[in-house]
Amino acid sequence: MRIAHLASEVMPFSKTGGLADVVGALPPALVALGQEVTVVVPGHRTTLRDPLPGEPRGEVAALGLTARLNVVLHRNVRVVLLDCPALYVRPALYSLPDGDFPDNAVRFAFFARAALAALAKLGGADVVHAHDWQAALVPFLLRHEGQTRFAMPAAKTVFTIHNLAYQGAFPPWVLEACGISRELFTMDLLEFYGSANFLKGGLVSADAITTVSPTYAREILTPEFGCGLQGVLATRRDTLFGILNGLDTEEWDPRRDPHLELPFGEEEDDVIEGKAAARRLLGREAKLVAGERPLIGMVSRLAEQKGADLLAASLDEIVGMGFDVVVLGAGERRYEEALRGAEAAHPGRVAAFIRFDERLAHRIYAASDLLLMPSRYEPCGLGQMIAMRYGTLPVVTCTGGLADTVVDAGEDGGTGFVLQELTPAALTEALARARAVLSNPVRLATMRATGMARDFSWTASAREYVKLYEQLVG
Ligand code: ADP
Ligand code: GLC
After folding, report:
1. What is the pLDDT of residue 291?
2. Which residue CA neighbors atom 1 of ligand 2 most closely?
3. For each successive 10 residues of the chain (474 residues), what is the average pLDDT?
4. What is the pLDDT of residue 162?
């Protein structure tokens, strides 16, 4: 089958979070199963001087703008970068700490249109697989706009929800600039509580809907996690599937991680030595006071979802319990400030790196004893899987993909610590249990080995996607 993945970010060309990891790793896994895969993404760059990779392959037009197509073969996947400087040369992908770019509706309506035009020009696809609100107009336009459908009449569509809270909801007046007819602004299509809701458009239009873990697939049907869309999702529950994300095991491999001082395999002595080397390196970089204290790491977008406020509120106690803490994150200003404040309050014990830094992320996963992910909700989460692969025990809330991937230390095959509720008390209780394990070398080695031996590769999940594509194509 010819499969096309359309998304707003992809590793190694652009990234704000796990979406880029998934769109970077699922396609090569599909190629390994014999599929032909194209990925189409915006050609994001920060200045006009940064060159976009790839060979020029003509251009497409939409909404009075043009995008040049830059095509690059990466891991046997054809990646098409849409070069449209007016929309995609920005200091960030979607937003600055104070808020979203005001033209995001047009930026991603253009993306949907230009990506479909690019696909048609490059020969079409049997399955068009779109991700998150930024690509949600893809299935919508293919189903409801005659001339768009006409360019690829046989294509089936899959829409994957990576995060239901980000919906791309705009005032209805943006529709005109997006080239969308007012006739499509109805209760059963784009309209949602008075807004033009791109995500809803995708949900009501795709042939199949998936999300990134079985637990989140169930959670989003409830008012607590449905972000208002649980009723819309209920109408599609027969075609809603939870397929757990895999990990890009080439990118995240402690045995050959170029960012580590001493890469390490699964042998217990190797793990201990490799992690100690990573800890020394990070300790210097983070200006931590030298010592043998256990280290808690956190690598995260700083958003309400991720529970960074809980960490900030609990830091005095966590430091008092004898942990050092290193946080790497960027996002909303209030969390950035809280973490900077915590660093100032605990010099040498708490380090806050407020930025996006791939290299440092690798070092933190390797150097930490515990990785903290106190998420309010988590569609899948990759950090906990990366942690386990690097011999780091995740401390997580019991939600979404975290619940599907981390087994609590109190159970057989334990690989981490699961908080039953998101409170400072639950966090300190879990950290007290973790501290006991960290000071017990035999239990620690068992839990680490169990986590490191888990198979988080994409193979099994890629097979599930192929099965779904085959059902749709018939
Ligand atoms: P989400 O997609 O909701 O942000 P995931 O756990 O699925 O959460 O994926 C997050 C990905 O982004 C991981 O690969 C993580 O290492 C990475 N990441 C998050 N914040 C940063 C940062 N500040 N610097 C580098 N990598 C980061
Ligand atoms: C989203 C979710 C995260 C998931 C990622 C990749 O950003 O917040 O849980 O792992 O997408 O699917």
Report:
1. 84
2. 162
3. 98 96 97 98 96 95 98 98 98 91 98 98 97 98 95 96 98 98 97 98 98 98 98 98 96 97 96 97 95 95 92 93 97 92 96 97 98 98 98 98 98 97 95 98 98 95 98 96
4. 98
pLDDT of 450: 98
> Would you say the CB of residue 18 lies under 6 angstroms from ligand 1?
yes
**Selection from 253, 160, 258, 161 nearest residue 456 by Cα:** 253
Whole-prediction pTM: 0.96
The per-residue pLDDT for 88 is 98
Ligand nearest to the CA of 299: 1
Q: Is 139 touching ligand 1 by the criterion CB < 6 Å?
A: no
Per-residue model confidence (pLDDT) at position 312: 87
Distance between CA atoms of residues 351 and 333, nearest Å: 17
* Chain centroid offset of residue 268 CA: 30
Question: What stretch of H or E contains 340?
Answer: helix 333-345
Structural domains in the chain, CATH included, are: 2-246+459-473 (3.40.50.2000), 268-455 (3.40.50.2000)
What is the three-class DSSP state of 421? coil
**Of 3, 203, 6, the residue nearest 116 (C-alpha):** 6
Which ligand ends up closest to the CA of 377?
2
Ligand 1 centroid to residue 241 C-alpha, Å: 24
Cis peptide preceding 254, ω within 30 of 0: no
299 in ligand 1 pocket by Cβ < 6 Å? yes
Residue from 382, 388, 389, 390 whose mutation best tests the ligand 1 pocket (most atoms within 8 A of CB): 382
Atom 17 in ligand 1: residue holding the nearest Cα:
17
Closest ligand to the CA of 403: 2
The alpha carbon of residue 269 and the mean position of all alpha carbons in its chain are separated, in whole angstroms, by 32
- CB of 331 within 6 A of ligand 1: the answer is no
The two tokens of residue 354 are 């407020």
Going by alpha carbons, the residue nearest to atom 10 of ligand 2 is: 381
Contact indicator for 189, 144 with CB cutoff of 8 Å: yes
Ligand 2 pocket: which of 26, 305, 382, 384 to mutate (most atoms <8 Å of CB)? Answer: 382
How is the chain split among helix, strand and coil, in percent rounded to 5? 40, 20, 35
The phi, psi pair for 299, rounded to 5°, reads -130, 110
Q: What is the pLDDT of residue 134?
A: 98
